């Protein structure tokens, strides 16, 4: 039985504006296990990117952690990273313990700074001899199928897919335990997307990274590699389950709606047809009462408007927040 | 009868100022589209699919080849303004970026009013307004929410619906939809697709989807054309193209697309 690498407990992260709060992540708890790939899905504006910032403790105003804590296992002990400052976490954890592949990784590199400079920066900020790390970078570039000579080139000389691979090679140079990938494939075409997924899996197989959290809106892509899937809606977790079980039988009506809007070239899709979730995601300044999905939910009951469903385990490993599955339905 | 016949169509762009270079964007393609048929032109960026669409829309001149729409060669047989107006009315486009289709300084219904310029018959203002309202209802929008609004006040999905409402006004015979769903949220994508299918059912419209999304093409089309480097490399019904592709390129393309109900084997 593997232990959890990260424990997220009742985290509430709000964007505090002048006289309003945007409740982007509201009372979210889950764990990332060791040796696990977990996928986070949801529509735009459901708080998935905020969640990855919370994990990194990349908290920049107006984002504020209002409550809850994040525990990260480092050298066998859980450190409460949410109580440290951003700078402390950056020094102790970023790069070494956890690393981010940002949303537009392809554009994350300054076109006129040589790739080797990034590696040198990394060496400098962690007090590692430059040459040692450059040597390692050359090896890692080969692993991701890039010619090591590209290290002496400028990012603008590389194609999008190559830049993406360079980013992942540099981000994992110090063998972080947790890799946070935030929409890493959305700007890639299908062939490069597959290459990227292969690289991620290979890094996990070789033990370069231990666990991966993959944030995306593309269910078909994460379905290929994740063990568990976490569905977010309007800052809340709607469902967490092993991915095969979710695809086989989604429990929460929102999950079902999401799955039914996926269009992939498969006979099953043609048979089932395509449906849409009516309406738009709510405003997170004043989210709906009760279950946040109830105004759009085809199976909404009167209780959904009044009370908020708790995330409960209804089968081993399957947790869902929905009154359809809980006792307090009446 | 074929509504659209494309024969040996090619387009060569010459680029460069001092050193002229020729880029063959479309190389000798031919196909036909029947009445009420939905076909998809699938390919990666740079495969020449948008260039083909622009030639069909009579926006750029082909280097060689013929495009015959409803029996008329669109480059040689359309001479008067009246004929051009009729062509524009019967062959209509829905573009990728609903944000760019609207002028931000005018209320959104201006796009609808402009459609009346393409019509032969003159309508009074009140009649026209009724038509506009009807067509908005057809695409599932409440005229109250739309009329008088400016583009920044409505969502991308709503904008795309208004573009389709225009199609209900003009009742074109042929619609070219260039990536109509790529810029809107997945949850509203299905609605847009259904609207186009409804238009086909009720009006007998032929539709050509230009897309890189093989999932979309597989779901909606009667026929799929796969384009690569300006050539059509595969042409067939969706089940054959997706489940049993013949050309190497199609095989790679189908093999790399992540599926929902099966896992990729080789990763």
Which key features would you list for this structure?
heterodimer, A: 330 residues, alpha/beta, 2 domains, eight-stranded mixed β-sheet, four-stranded antiparallel β-sheet, B: 267 residues, Rossmann fold, globular
Secondary-structure-based class of chain A equals alpha/beta
What is the domain total for the residues of chain B?
Answer: 1
- What order do the helices and strands of chain A follow? EEEHEEHEHHHEHEHEEHHHHEE
In oligomeric terms, what are we looking at?
heterodimer
CATH architecture of the largest domain in chain A: 3-Layer(aba) Sandwich
Within CATH, the superfamily of the largest domain in chain A carries the name: P-loop containing nucleotide triphosphate hydrolases
Strand content of chain B: 25-35%
For the termini of chain A, the CA-CA separation is 37 Å
In the CATH hierarchy, the third-tier topology of chain B is known as Rossmann fold
Structural class of chain B: alpha/beta
CATH architecture of chain B: 3-Layer(aba) Sandwich
The helicity of chain B comes to 25-40%
Overall, the morphology of chain A is globular
Largest sheet of chain A: 8 strands, mixed
Explain how this protein is built.
The complex is a heterodimer of chains A (330) and B (267). Chain A is built from eleven helices and twelve strands. By secondary structure, chain A is an alpha/beta fold. Chain A has two domains: 226 residues, Rossmann fold, CATH 3.40.50.300; 71 residues, no CATH class. In chain A, helix 3 packs across helix 4 and helix 4 packs across helix 5. The longest helix of chain A is centred in the middle third of the chain and has 16 residues. Chain A is globular. Chain B is α/β, with parallel strands linked by helices and 267 residues long. Chain B has a single domain, classed as P-loop containing nucleotide triphosphate hydrolases (Rossmann fold, 3-Layer(aba) Sandwich), CATH 3.40.50. Chain B contains ten helices and ten strands. In chain B, strands 6-7-8-3-9-10 form a six-stranded mixed beta sheet, with helices on both faces. In chain B, strands 2-1-4-5 form a four-stranded antiparallel beta sheet, covered by helices on one side. In chain B, helix 4 packs across helix 6 and helix 6 packs parallel to helix 7. The longest helix of chain B has 18 residues. The mean pLDDT of chain B is 89.
